[in-house]
Every structure is written in C-alpha cells, then in structure tokens.
Design brief:
two-stranded antiparallel sheet, mainly alpha, 424 residues
C-alpha cells in the first residue's frame, strides 16, 4: 500500500508540475502499477472505462462539426436581437454559453461564444473582459447539468451507473440538472448586480446581424445524440457501451455527411484533429492508476481518514467533501481529482452503509464549480484568458477574481444547500 500511495502522490505532483505531459505521466504511472505486479495487464485493460472514452470521442467530434456549421453563432445573434442593453447582453450570452455547455465541452463552448462577446465590445468600445469571464464561469457551471456536459459528469455518471435521464430525476428526486439551474438563477441575479453599470443600448448593426448557416446536419446529430441517450436510459438489458456507441456512431455519420456535402477529404483530418487525444490518454492512464491504488488498499485508508475528521456527522462529511473539492479544483485540474475521489466516496458508503448519492453529487458540485474561482482552475478559464490575451487584454488574477468570487460563491452555495435539502 505504501508503494502504491507513493507512486500515486508522485504521479499527482507531476500532473501539476508538467501540465503539457499529463497523458505521458498517467500512462507511465499505469505502466509502473502493471510492472510492479499490483495489476496484471488484463486487469489494467479492464480498468479502462471504454464507455467514457467512446462518449468523449463521439461528443468531441460532433461538437467540432457543430462549431464548423456556425449554428452557435446564429443562436447568439438571435439572442442579441432581443436584449435591451449591454448588461443583459453579457448575462444572456453567459447563460447561452451555459446552455450550450450542458451538452458540449466547456472549452468548445468558450471558443464558440467568446468571439461574439469580442465583437460586441469592439462595436461599443468597451472592455470585453467582464463578459468573457462571465461566459467561462457559466460554461463551467452547466457542465455538471447533464451526463455529457463535462468530463467530470461523464466520469461520475459512468462510475455510478447513471443514465442521461438520471441527471434530471434520480430515484424519484430532483437530480443535478435542477440543482445546476438553481445555481444559474443565483448566477443571473448576482451578474445583473455586478454588471449594472453596463446600461448602454446595443447598436442596430449588432441587433440585425445574422450568421448564415448552410449545414444543419451537425445540429440534428447533436439533438439526436441527446434524444437517443434519453431513450436508451429506459431500455433494460442494454449493452454496457451503449452510450459510447451512440456518440461515436453519430459522429461517424456526421463525418460521412460532411464529406458527401463538401467532397473534401480534408474534412476527416480537420475534424479528427479537434478530438483531444491528450485527455483520452490521460483518462485511460488514470483509470488504471485508480484501480491500482484501490486494490492496494489506499482508497480504503483515505475513506477512513474522511470519516475520522467528520466524526459520525453526515453533514460534516458532506460539507468536507464539497469544500475540499472546491479548494482542490480552484488550483488543479478536476479530472484526475474526481477520478481519484469517486472510489473514496464509494468506500465511505461501503464502510458506513449510507446512500452515497449525497456525497457523489456534492463531489461533482464542488469539483466542477470550484474551478471557477481562479483563472487556472478550469480549462475553459484558461482558454478564455488566452483569447483575451491574443486580443490585447491582459487579465490579472485579482481582476479575474473580483468577478469570479461572487459569481462562483453564489452558484456553489446554492448547489450546496439544494443538494443537502434534496438528498440528505
């Protein structure tokens, strides 16, 4: 157990120190667990959740085609045609980014919506920084709303065995989707207060602008993916990899349709390049590492530590998991953190005999939203700050946090209270 814990701690440290080499670090660590005999090669392969991997490949591919179709830009134009002033434009664009992010990767959402905010700021001669930060925070918030919203949601859903519809209603109770929407309401109210000075009316050219969309197939595929995931949520005895088959199958259909429409073979390479292979390899390695430390007894030890610090209080245990997750996710990537903590929560439940749902949802809430506190806490934040920098706007950490702290606290506190009230 000591050897496994040491390897894991070194792995985690290297993931923080060498962010560009995270996949290599995870795979080398997985190799150590195999080479040391803690896991056999067959057990290591079995530890990889291929349903998660296939879901991510499929959704990444469909999202790439969806962005290329320019449909998100058209939807943003339609929203802007209805708002009275800049304050509402900032808030509604952020909420729109959140809506997209419930079904699309957070970074992809930022890449879709931020250019719209930049265009508006240029035409009004105002700083785009507040609007871009709000978009990044909102996209992270809604990533926990559905099974396909974020890698952390996919991880938890697959680990617990949740279906797409379970994120709406789980065991007869309101699930994460509704908790996140309560957080979005809090985000909106705080956002309207923070941006109250941005009361300039939008110019007519912004209101009348309409992006031209010529390819509606990716939009149909994205909607079709959601519908099929919902439908198969209710099918008994379905294949273990059904969600992965749905997502990758629709992605392949989208690629073929794009080739038929454009007669351009380059569409295959361009779209495949948009799939984040680094994240896929990182997750594959982490699945093996987490299985290794579980078999070595590390997870059981950490579970007992949480129970020791919380005593016999379920409320203290829940609070500890939520706010420790917030703290960690404010500074480190939440994917390896959630991957490591899911078996810890399961271990706590097996020791105490409690229903782990409260703790699973608390973990997802804290880990997904906690990354909003700092500019390095989530990939979407890093992408947003990078776009601003390319356009000549440097964002100091303190300036970012002046907006992120109130918006994020409002969302997390709302989710923290709502999950406890529903699931305690």
């Amino acid at each position: 157990m000591i050897f496994a814990l040491t390897v894991f701690l070194i792995t985690y440290a290297l993931l923080l120190i060498l962010p560009k080499y995270r996949a290599a670090v995870a795979l080398v660590s997985a190799g150590i667990f195999i080479g040391s005999g803690i896991l056999s090669f067959g057990a290591a392969i079995s530890a990889i959740n291929f349903n998660v991997i296939l879901m991510l490949i499929g959704t990444m591919g469909i999202v790439a085609l969806f962005i290329e179709s320019r449909m998100p830009s058209l939807l943003a134009d339609l929203i802007l045609s209805k708002v009275p002033d800049v304050k509402w434009a900032i808030v509604l664009l952020a909420l729109f980014a959140g809506f997209i992010s419930a079904f699309v990767d957070n970074v992809a959402t930022v890449l879709m919506v931020v250019p719209v905010a930049l265009t508006i700021s240029k035409k009004l001669n105002i700083s785009p920084v507040p609007g871009v930060i709000a978009i990044a925070i909102s996209s992270n918030l809604q990533g926990a709303a559905t099974l396909v919203g974020d890698a952390t949601a996919i991880l938890m859903g697959s680990y617990v065995g949740m279906t797409f519809s379970d994120f709406f209603f789980y065991h007869g109770k309101f699930s994460m989707f509704w908790v996140v929407q309560l957080g979005a309401v809090a985000f909106t109210l705080v956002g309207l207060f923070i941006f109250r000075k941005f009361n300039q009316p939008l110019p007519d050219e912004v209101r009348k602008n309409r992006t031209q969309v010529t390819d509606y197939v990716p939009s149909v595929l994205l909607v079709g993916m959601i519908v099929l995931l919902i439908v198969f949520s209710f099918v008994p005895g379905k294949p273990e990899l059904i969600n992965g088959y749905i997502c990758t199958g629709l992605f392949i259909i989208g690629l073929i349709a794009a080739f038929i429409r454009t007669k351009d073979k380059g569409v295959f390479l361009r779209t495949l390049k948009e799939i984040d292979v680094t994240t896929l390899l990182l997750l594959s390695g982490l699945f093996i590492v987490i299985d290794g430390i579980t078999k070595a007894g590390v997870i059981e030890m950490v579970s007992k530590m949480f129970l020791h610090f919380s005593g016999d209080s379920v409320f203290l245990l829940y609070t500890l998991i939520v706010w420790v997750s917030v703290l960690f996710s404010a500074f480190i990537d939440n994917i390896p953190y959630v991957a490591a903590m899911l078996p810890v929560v399961s271990g706590i439940a097996s020791i105490t005999g409690m229903d782990p749902t409260l703790l699973y949802f608390g973990l997802l809430c804290g880990a997904t939203l906690g990354g909003n506190f700092t500019p390095i806490g989530a990939s979407a934040n890093i992408a947003a700050i990078g776009i601003l920098r390319k356009n000549g706007f440097e964002v100091p950490t303190l300036e970012y946090m002046k907006l992120s702290i109130p918006l994020t606290l409002a969302s997390i506190l709302t989710g923290y209270v709502a999950i406890w009230c529903i699931w305690s």
